[in-house]
Amino acid sequence: MDKYTQTNNIILHYLDHPGDEPPIIVMHGLSANAHFFDGLAASSLPNRLLAVDLRGRGQSDKPATGYSMAEHAADILGLMDNLGLEQVILAGHSYGGLLTCYLAANYPERVSKCIVMDSGFMHPSVRELIKPSLDRLKQRIPSWEAYRDGVKSAAYWQGYWDTAVENYYRADVQTYDDGSVRVRSKPENIAEAVDKGLNEPWEEIFGRVQQPTLMLHAPGSFGAPGTPPVVPPTQAEETVGALGNCRYRAVPGNHMTMLFGENAEVLAQEIVAFLEETGD
């Protein structure tokens, strides 16, 4: 399942979940890792899933610079070339959803369909909304258990927790000889990805995506009840309108919980229906 490939002058780590053709390459959010899709891989979705650790995350290389959309896209194209995949279905959550659209717009011959998970035009205060999630990148925590308990109590999980969530966070950290842990992603690399990603002309990019696209939107609160979702309904509607050939589906959960437990199975069913409707 764990595999590595050399692409665009780095080593890229990915998880190869066997299944039916055509394969789906799934790309995680800003500071996440490939195990974010373990719930989807364990669902009824029959397709082969290639879950990638984007550069600077998980077990992939972490160069000091090079976190633009163009660099990330080159990594994915190199992975496809190395695997002999001329064309794939691309899927991405949050930042990975933006990367999905970037690739579809700029390399349309390589992308047959797009699945965008809670991504697109973001909440105007998205930097503040994701700050609690990013704060963990700066800290060295005394133990894995202390780190786990800290993220487990985060407001955006709203009390939800299971083995898949715990395994996702376990893959997110490296452990030192004294038992302390630190998230593998470096804050300066993620900051570069944020700054360069937000500066892309997304309205123009979305307008060039002509492939059949499925928008899976999680309108649940990202935090305590009453806090806004990462992608508010207005921004989701604007994203769907900007994309050339997009179907919208609201799914249960929030920006994080949408891909775990029973919610992952809902996503799987929506994806299967979309692929059947569009010819796969």
Largest sheet: 8 strands, mixed
The number of helical elements comes to 10
Poorly predicted regions: none
Rounded average pLDDT: 94
Shape: globular
Number of E strands: 11
What proportion of the residues form beta strands (DSSP E)? 15-25%
Q: Structural class of the helices, strands and pairings?
A: alpha/beta
The Rg value, from CA coordinates, equals 17 Å
Strand order of the largest sheet: 1-2-4-3-5-6-10-11
C-alpha end-to-end distance: 24 Å
Order of helices and strands: EEEHEHEHEHEHHEEHHEHEH
Helix content: 25-40%
Keywords:
3-stranded antiparallel sheet; alpha/beta; 36% helix
Describe the structure.
- With 280 residues, the protein is α/β, with parallel strands linked by helices.
- An eight-stranded mixed beta sheet has the order 1-2-4-3-5-6-10-11, sandwiched between helices.
- The protein is 36% helix and 21% strand.
- The radius of gyration is 17 Å and the shape is globular.
- The protein has ten helices and eleven strands.
Quick recap:
The chain has 280 residues and is of the alpha/beta class.
How would you summarize the topology of this molecule?
Layout: E1 2-7, E2 10-17, E3 20-27, H1 38-41, E4 47-52, H2 69-82, E5 88-93, H3 95-106, E6 111-117, H4 126-135, E7 140-141, H5 144-152, H6 163-170, E8 173-175, E9 181-183, H7 187-198, H8 202-207, E10 213-217, H9 233-242, E11 246-250, H10 262-277
Parallel strand pairs: 3-4, 3-5, 5-6, 6-10, 10-11
Antiparallel strand pairs: 1-2, 2-4, 7-9, 8-9
